[in-house]
């Protein structure tokens, strides 16, 4: 008895075998052409993703112990070279930094940082070099940090005042929550000019600390989580992990918040006119965006991305400090 769908199945299997063979052949040719470092043999389609567990840095460390300080992996469609020694890091980050400086266009840069408008995700070129110069000389310069030093001192003293009653009563205090609020208040006053989160913020614009904390933790997670669509592009439309949906939701939440902040700052600029003096990083960004001498104009999305990245960097620094201090 002849099966009606047998020819179609045979064609499908033959096509699949052809594609697998083509991928394996291409990988071997690349290995011979570029002298790729040693590493585990990749599977078709997924490459070495099957070897990466829930803690990728632990998985890569275990693999490097087996294949050496310079090894090759394949994440889906893309070859990856991993350096895990001091010499490899110096070779990549210092000796040949220009060759390795660029970053791939990944979904998190597109959906959470205004289509690669922020310095952390934009491509190397005139725009990136201009942003880096502005960050070093204007936004996070030593002078700017000195001007905002009193903010950090005031917020730390306010936290200690809040903690003082607990020392006399012996009540247990979750120090992490207080440190988080100090961080959020410092960010809000340094970058945005006043408190926009929790107590001290106006009722029209206040964000709940729990909500803002979730937004910060979500953007950290989504900018570091391996996204299948980045590694296997033809699967990106499926969004199998749901990350793109989460990125779009988070982007809308941040955009509403940043739009409100920019609107308030622009109103003050219009009211003060020529007497306007920048008071915070948002004021500086808006002033820089109007500078006609810039090599590459900074768009509205560029300003929003810079505000977001300012928050991102300051929070990241605080997390590093907490980690180093064992908190």
Describe the structure.
This protein is mainly α and 327 residues long. The chain has 2 domains: 6-103, no CATH class; 126-324, Cytochrome p450, CATH 1.10.630. The protein contains 14 helices and 2 strands. It has helices at residues 6-34, 56-67, 86-95, 97-100, 107-111, 126-139, 142-147, 149-169, 175-192, 209-222, 228-231, 243-272, 281-289, 300-324, and strands at residues 70-75, 78-83. Helix 8 (149-169) runs antiparallel to helix 9 (175-192). It is globular, with a radius of gyration of 25 Å. The termini are far apart. It holds the Pfam family p450. InterPro entries: Cyt_P450 (IPR001128), Cyt_P450_E_grp-I (IPR002401), Cyt_P450_sf (IPR036396). This is Cytochrome P450. GO terms for molecular function: heme binding; iron ion binding; monooxygenase activity; oxidoreductase activity, acting on paired donors, with incorporation or reduction of molecular oxygen.
Short synopsis of the structure:
The protein has 2 domains: 6-103, no CATH class; 126-324, Cytochrome P450 (Cytochrome p450), CATH 1.10.630.10.
Give the helix/strand class. Answer: mainly alpha
List the strand order in the largest sheet.
1-2
CATH class of the largest domain equals Mainly Alpha
Name given to the CATH homologous superfamily of the largest domain: Cytochrome P450
Average of pLDDT: 81
- Overall tally of structural domains: 2
End-to-end gap: 72 Å
The CATH topology label of the largest domain is: Cytochrome p450
What does the radius of gyration come to? 25 Å
Order of helices and strands: HHEEHHHHHHHHHHHH
Can you tell me the CATH architecture of the largest domain?
A: Orthogonal Bundle
Low-confidence stretches: 321-327
Counted by DSSP, the helix tally is 14
Into which percent range does the helicity of residues fall? 55-70%
Q: Could you describe the largest sheet, including whether it forms a barrel?
A: 2 strands, antiparallel
Pfam families: p450 (PF00067)
GO molecular function: heme binding; iron ion binding; monooxygenase activity; oxidoreductase activity, acting on paired donors, with incorporation or reduction of molecular oxygen
Family: Belongs to the cytochrome P450 family.
Organism: Triticum turgidum subsp. durum (Durum wheat)
């Amino acid at each position: 008895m002849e099966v009606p769908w047998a020819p179609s199945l045979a064609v499908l299997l033959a096509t699949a075998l052809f594609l697998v063979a083509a991928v394996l052949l291409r990988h071997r040719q690349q290995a011979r052409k570029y002298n790729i470092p040693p590493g585990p043999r990749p599977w078709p389609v997924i490459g070495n993703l099957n070897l990466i567990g829930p803690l990728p840095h632990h998985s890569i460390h275990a693999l490097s112990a087996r294949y050496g300080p310079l090894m090759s992996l394949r994440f889906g469609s893309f070859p990856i070279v991993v350096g895990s020694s001091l010499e490899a890091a110096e070779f990549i980050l210092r000796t040949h930094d220009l060759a390795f400086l660029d970053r791939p266009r990944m979904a998190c840069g597109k959906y959470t940082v205004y289509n690669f408008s922020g310095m952390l995700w934009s491509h190397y070129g005139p725009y990136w070099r201009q942003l880096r110069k502005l960050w070093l000389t204007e936004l996070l310069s030593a002078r700017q940090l000195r001007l905002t030093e009193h903010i950090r001192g005031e917020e730390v003293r306010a936290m200690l005042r809040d903690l003082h009653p607990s020392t006399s009563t012996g009540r247990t205090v979750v120090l992490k929550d207080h440190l988080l609020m100090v961080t959020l208040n410092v960010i809000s006053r340094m970058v945005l000019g006043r408190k926009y989160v929790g107590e001290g913020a106006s009722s029209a614009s206040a964000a709940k600390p729990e909500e803002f904390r979730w937004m910060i933790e979500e953007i950290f997670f989504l900018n570091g989580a391996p996204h299948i669509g980045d590694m296997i592009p033809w699967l990106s439309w499926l969004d199998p992990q749901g990350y793109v949906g989460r990125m779009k939701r988070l982007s809308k939440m941040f955009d509403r918040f940043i739009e409100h902040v920019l609107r308030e700052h622009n109103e003050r600029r219009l009211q003060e006119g020529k007497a306007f003096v920048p008071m915070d990083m948002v004021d500086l960004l808006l002033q820089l965006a109007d500078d006609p001498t810039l090599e590459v104009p900074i768009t509205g999305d560029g300003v929003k991305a810079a505000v977001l990245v300012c928050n991102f960097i300051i929070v990241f620094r605080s997390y590093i400090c907490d980690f180093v201090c064992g908190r």
